[in-house]
Amino acid sequence: MPSLQHAVVSRLVGRLRPSPSLEDLDALREQLVVANRTAHEGPPRGVRAGHQETIGNEHGFSVVSLWRQGDQGAAPGRALFYVHGGAFVKPSDHRHWRFATRVADALDARAVLPLYPLAPEYTVHDCLESLADVFEEVAAECPDGVVLAGDSAGGGLALALAQELRDRGRARACAQPGRLVLIAPWVDLTGTTPGTLEAARDDPWLSYPHLAVYAAFWAGSADPDRLAHPRVSPLRGDLTGLPPCLVLCGTRDLLRPGCDALFERADQAGWELEYVVAPGLVHVYPLLPIPEAGPAVESIVDFLRAR
Known about the structure:
By secondary structure, this protein is an alpha/beta fold. The protein has helices at residues 4-16, 25-37, 45-48, 94-106, 128-140, 153-171, 196-201, 208-219, 224-227, 256-269, 293-305, and strands at 51-56, 63-68, 79-83, 110-114, 146-151, 180-183, 245-252, 273-282.
């Protein structure tokens, strides 16, 4: 049974983060562009304390690396490459930084967070190849390997990134993530996965109409074929040859049907995927300040420690 803290958080999250109006999409687009251009992304003070930090901007967007301070000061030889969520239209927030550094610290690794370009000003086609370039550069600095993770929209983008890296590796030598963790990933932006509308009615946080708009922003079009492109909806891409993967999702999550479908397609493709379904829990529960997050983080760390 979900904890009291979970009940409180699930009630408050929708009220504290109200969805914007969809009556005027041009106004919404302008609002999001202005908000993202003026956002001050970066780790909060509590995360910076006790960590060393580097920031790069060689690809037109910031890439932040954080690692626990030690006597030597050198960055660890292993990395957690973390792709943050936010429906592709919102920048990273404190939850992403705290979660990524918590997992990276437990792995004695550096946490690498690319602050990738956001919709509606940009689309997936503006950033996926650059993200792959960044991953290769990080891997070149990490002899102990790189693991890849993401939540929500970032989870879907992490899966698309793993597919891009796999395809590069088929054409030439290219570093691959050792393992992959997806937390309630948004893997089908068409909104047509069976059960999605039913799941939306039980989700206190995510809004189906808003996700449909954000999906079109990220794809660059509301055309069904564009939304179904594997770069946009990686559920519909080739799932063979990907690294071992752990997926976590609660049952009160609009994105659960997509996660269910991913598990089924992974089995058909022979892709090693472990799927954890948490009864009664909401979207991205491992990132929330609730008791259920602790065991989830421990399971993620244990999975990523395996070589």
